[in-house]
UniProtKB/TrEMBL annotation:
InterPro entries in the cross-refs: MZB1 (IPR052682)
Lineage: Eukaryota, Metazoa, Chordata, Cephalochordata, Leptocardii
Organism listed in the record: Branchiostoma belcheri (Amphioxus)
GO cellular component: endoplasmic reticulum chaperone complex; extracellular region
Protein name listed in UniProt: Marginal zone B- and B1-cell-specific protein-like
């Protein structure tokens, strides 16, 4: 099936390619992602995140690569490959799905923001 957003035809990916693509993303090594103190708040920092370019030390490695790997597959399991792909095609990101819905991990209701009192 093809859809026609903004005057051009876009070919739908087969489910097998969606699954392979998401598995490849989740299987990244995540070694450059970790936690950084940004204005007194611990924030996730790494490639593709707004905090990547904020000056500071990123505490990466340790448990973070495994945590992110597991969380990535958890989203696939909870939401499903096809729904993730559909949302991404429509919105070009997953932020609303993950952060605006009340059950999203980064929804303000679910955040446990804590000021940093000590060094990372």
């Amino acid at each position: 099936m093809s859809t026609r957003p903004r005057g051009r035809w876009v070919k739908e990916l087969p489910l097998s390619e969606i699954i392979d693509g998401l598995e490849n993303i989740c299987n990244e090594d995540w070694k450059d992602t970790g936690v950084k103190d940004v204005e007194g708040v611990k924030r996730l920092s790494g490639p593709g995140l707004e905090t990547k370019e904020v000056p500071g030390v990123t505490a990466s490695g340790h448990k973070w690569p495994q945590r992110l790997h597991e969380m990535c597959f958890m989203y696939i399991g909870d939401i499903g490959e096809e729904q993730l792909y559909d949302v991404f095609k429509r919105e070009k990101n997953l932020e609303n799905l993950m952060c605006q819905q009340t059950n999203g991990h980064c929804h303000p209701k679910n955040l446990k923001v804590k000021k940093v009192d000590d060094e990372l």
